[in-house]
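Backbone shape codes:
***
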Amino acid sequence: MPIELLHNERELFSRLSLGDEKAFTSIFLFYSRKMYPWLLKKTRDEAMAEEIMQDTFLKVWVNRDRLSGMDNPEGYLYRIAANLVLDHFRALALEHKIMYRFQHRKTAAADTDAQGAIDFRETQQLINQAVEQLPDQRKRIYTLRQEGLSYHEIAARLGISSNTVKNQLIAAGKFIRGYLSENGITTLALISFYTTL
């Protein structure tokens, strides 16, 4: 079976490096059809494969100035995707480890459990305070994401692009984690927040 090629690939990537949105759309439409099945095989999760694919092309757009004159742009795309898959499984393993520790912690000392509950409430209060300080649109996007909506669903509801949703969530997460850190929240709590954003 012949390998499917993108017509004028070098030219498209060169145009993309200069910020050409039409070139980006052509590259996305071509490579997303190839990349999604590969990601699905790696993750065995349709939603995660879709999210990693979106994140891959978001990184391509953000770092588009690096694409000019690149010898193997397809390899570059797949390296980004592979690294995101690896990050996904690392975060998943970390989340499972954290959940295991919480579920199997010793319950002999009631005061330890009570302190843990207090810490959780304080952390949640700080998160709420940080969220209230977000700009209106960013707060709305963050809230909808916490309600379980996908990037596409949030974008459709607010009439914005999925890339805007992603960028706003990244900014919201960075601000909230910084706010928690400034208020003395432990590294473990920050990791727990990061893996649930």
Summary: Confidence is low (pLDDT under 50) at residues 106-118, 187-197. The longest helix spans residues 73-103. Residues 15 and 77 are 16 Å apart (CA to CA). DSSP finds nine helices and no strands in the chain.
